[in-house]
Write a structure and sequence with these properties.
Belongs to the terpene synthase family. Its EC number is 4.2.3.-. This protein has helices at residues 3-7, 27-41, 58-64, 66-73, 79-104, 109-118, 137-149, 155-170, 172-180, 187-198, 200-210, 222-250, 257-265, 269-293, 295-301, 306-330, 367-370, 372-379, 407-421, 437-443, 445-452, 458-483, 488-498, 517-530, 535-561, 567-577, 580-589, 597-600, 603-631, 638-646, 650-683, 687-713, 719-722, 745-755; strands spanning 432-433, 729-730. The protein is mainly alpha-helical and 757 residues long. Helix 8 (155-170) crosses helix 10 and helix 30 crosses helix 31 (650-683). The longest helix has 34 residues, at 650-683. It is globular.
């Protein structure tokens, strides 16, 4: 073992690289071009921005070799395109190092913010707008690149590229603030913020520029979001492994995934690095799984023609090229720790064909390089195993709530409403009861409403309780009809129909006739809730409901594949399956127009809501573990996800999940104490708006406090109640009629096209 090897903080793991790396033949031309361009912009050469700091020497520039990075990550780009993309990467890495040198080291928050505030001026969506005179190499380079990049792209792409570039720039302040407070983020916060700070979504936009622009109507679909997010996470996690030594030991950074895991799990650096690599592998396999199982549905449902399908496929190949090419560059660049990247004995010693070209064949030997660990764990779950009750941990809860005095009225009225909607009746033709009086009483969702919305008026609490009844019933109804039969077409048709019962004109006669209690209940609640809302408010509220119901399709897909979800995908989808945005939207919309909508779009408010949602979701996962895993054959549960990913038992997984809940709650506290005041100042909120914003935060606190209290109080999750209620009861001979609920993918596509013209 060499001396250099001893100095490394950990041994690089075996990376899963499922796609071959290729090299662009225009590499040398790009090297020549980008060096000349860097001198022209002032990135290289004597400093011309008044800082008297030379950020990069030519020798360092040559060693980092960004032209090699781009030649690997864009192997088919024409020479002019490769030059442009290489210049972009030189600029973005220079920005990162320049910001570090001038603002991060000095902790100059005020100067750093002023510097960042100017940069959007050099990215006008309309090129007829002239920016101010550039004052440094970053501004000069950005304006030059912007003029060369956006003219050939649609306005939709320009907006996305602008936003992702701005995120990349702005969130550098988040890193400064964490360094100033010596604060290491929690794992969920880190993944979310790294996508913005790390720039991979920005890179995926440049992939579109280089190969094919995605059809605008599918950009926000789940598969396309997953492709971008998994691409981003894999790029960032790989970079964290290679850059740990430079960032943590040399630069004093705190924004690194290995460090985050190290601190969160209180484990050694090697263990943390191996877990980060497992997550990197899992994210790449999520990309593969989505392409195999969700992309065909996307093409059918959105009616993409062959040319549009080809655009999507070219884009995905571009992302794959970037993954493999980025890995090759990290193995070679002097910017990173890669001395031991080529370990010995990694090839499988088996007889191989001889002859021309065969000497280069190498087959990986290790499980890590083959990606076997995460894949095997995610597909190895055996349903309905005996797991027994969960030993509840001590939950960290700094907030409190109280019980609404209108609880009994809400219980009575919500049950009467459920009966009128048909939720307590046998489903016609199926001999199936989703709920009866006993199941309704056991769930006692009115109690949940009385705890999470304690200051509601009697009418408001009635409405809240009915929404909770509807969401809980629908969440039981959907798996009863579709999960056990694996009826994906029927499930998609069921979900697509729901939009028909949420019209913009709430007074219009609905052409669609409700056919089940879920549709009947939704139609009734939509009229009662959406009527007073503005057009924008209805759109926001409708999306919250759609996000929840569409997420059940994701759960069904996992059930069909018997696949325990990837950890990151699980956390992000769990917020939707739990209906977090639905209940939060009720609180948000009650604030009227006093709070500007832009406030709710800030990183602070989104982080606040996501932290609250995660806490509540994980509470539910712990309480419902036995119900879902042992009695219902479920596998979409956070405790199980932790078990499989970390390779620990149930009790240890509960402790880890509770630790994550605590971290998310402390992040919530941090945001309230440190960042909400900044939001108030930034938007110059008046007294009324400040009061309503603080009230909204208080309602989130009551929401988080009420969720575990309700779970502990009701019998819905207790073992004695689960024994006879694990499965819906069918009358003899009627279970086969479920087959009539199935439908073809063509019918799903036709309905989807009508709902999304």
């Amino acid at each position: 073992m060499s001396k250099a090897r001893h100095k490394q903080p950990f041994e690089l793991p075996d990376f899963y690289v499922p796609w071959p790396a290729r090299l662009n033949p225009h590499l040398e031309a790009a090297r020549v071009h980008t060096k000349a361009w860097s001198y022209e912009m002032g990135i290289l050469g004597p400093p011309n921005d008044g800082t008297q700091r030379e950020v990069w020497s030519e020798r360092r520039f040559d060693g980092m070799d960004y032209a090699l990075l781009c030649a690997y990550t864009h192997p088919e780009a024409p020479s002019v395109e490769l030059d442009l993309i290489t210049d972009w990467y030189v600029w973005v890495f220079y920005f990162d190092d320049h910001f570090l040198e001038v603002y991060k080291y000095s902790r100059d928050i005020q100067g750093g913010q002023a510097y960042l505030d100017r940069l959007p001026l050099f990215m006008p969506l309309d090129l007829s707008q002239t920016p101010p005179e550039p004052t440094n190499a970053v501004e000069r380079g950005l304006w030059n690149l912007w003029q060369r990049t956006v003219p050939t792209m649609s306005m939709d792409w320009r907006r996305r590229f602008y936003e992702n570039t701005k995120h990349l720039l702005d969130e550098s302040m988040w890193e400064i603030e964490n360094i100033s407070e010596a604060r290491v983020s929690n794992p969920v916060e880190y993944i979310e913020m790294r996508r913005k700070v790390g720039g991979a979504p920005w890179s995926s936009d440049l992939v579109e520029h280089a190969v094919a622009e995605i059809p605008a109507r599918v950009v926000q679909s789940r598969p396309m979001r997953v492709f971008k997010d998994t691409f981003s996470d894999a790029v960032h996690l790989r970079n964290d492994l290679f850059s740990y030594e430079r960032e943590i030991l040399e630069e004093g950074e705190l924004s690194n995934g290995v460090l985050v895991v190290e601190k969160f799990l209180e484990c050694d650096t090697q263990r943390a690095a191996d877990l980060v690599n497992d997550l990197l592998t899992s994210r790449l396999q999520q990309f593969e799984n989505t392409a195999a199982t969700e992309l065909p549905w996307l093409f059918a449902e959105y009616g993409l023609n062959p040319a549009e399908q080809a655009q999507v496929m070219l884009y995905l190949r571009g992302l794959q090229d970037w993954q493999s090419g980025g890995h090759e560059w990290h193995m070679r660049s002097n910017r990173y720790m890669n001395q031991t990247a080529g370990r010995e004995n990694r090839e499988l010693s088996i007889p191989l064909p001889s002859g021309l070209g065969m000497s280069a064949i190498k087959l990986p030997l290790t499980a890590g390089a083959l990606g076997l660990g995460p894949r095997a764990r995610s597909f190895s779950h055996v349903p309905r195993q005996h797991v027994g009750p969960v030993k509840l941990p001590k939950f960290y809860m700094p907030y409190s709530t109280y019980l609404s005095p209108h609880l009994e009225r809400a219980r009575r009225n919500s049950k009467d409403w459920a009966r009128r909607m048909g939720m307590l009746d046998e489903l016609p033709g199926l001999g199936l009861y989703i709920w009866d009086d006993h199941k309704f009483d056991v769930a006692d969702v009115a109690l949940c409403g009385a705890l999470i919305h304690p200051d509601a008026t009697p009418e408001q609490l009635d409405l809240t309780a009915c929404w909770l009844v509807w969401g809980t019933y629908a969440d039981d109804y959907f798996p009863a009809l579709y999960s056990h039969t694996r009826d994906m077409p029927g499930a998609k048709l069921f979900n697509a129909r729901l939009t028909q019962f949420m019209p913009d004109d709430v007074e219009a006669v609905n052409a669609a006739v409700p056919t089940n209690p879920v549709e009947v209940g939704l139609a009734d609640l939509w009229k009662r809730t959406a009527g007073p809302l503005s057009a924008y408010g209805r759109k926001l509220f409708r999306k919250a409901i759609q996000d929840m119901t569409e997420s059940w399709i994701w759960e069904l897909n996992n059930q069909i594949l018997n696949r325990v979800p990837d950890p990151v995908d699980y956390v992000e989808m769990r917020r939707k399956t739990f209906g977090s945005d639905l209940t939060m939207s009720l609180s948000r919309l009650s604030k009227g127009d006093a709070i500007p909508e832009a406030v709710f779009k800030t990183r602070t408010l989104r982080a606040l809501e996501n932290s609250a949602a995660d806490y509540a979701c994980f509470v539910n996962d712990i309480f419902s573990y036995q119900k879902e895993i042992e009695f219902e054959g479920e596998l979409n549960n956070g405790v199980l996800v932790v078990q499989k990913f970390l390779g620990v038992d149930k009790d240890e997984a509960v402790l880890v999940l509770n630790h994550l809940m605590t971290a998310r709650m402390k992040q919530f506290e941090h945001l309230v104490a440190k960042e909400i005041p900044v939001v108030i100042r930034s938007f110059d909120l008046d007294t009324d708006a400040q009061e309503k914003l603080h009230k909204y935060v208080e309602q989130l606190q009551q929401w988080m406090a009420g969720i575990p209290m309700w779970h502990a109080a009701v019998d819905r999750y207790k073992e004695f109640e689960l024994r006879d209620a694990a499965m819906p009861k069918f009358k003899t001979g009627n279970i086969g009629s479920l087959g009539a609920l199935g439908t073809s993918a063509l019918r799903v596509a036709e309905l989807f096209k009508r709902e999304h013209p």
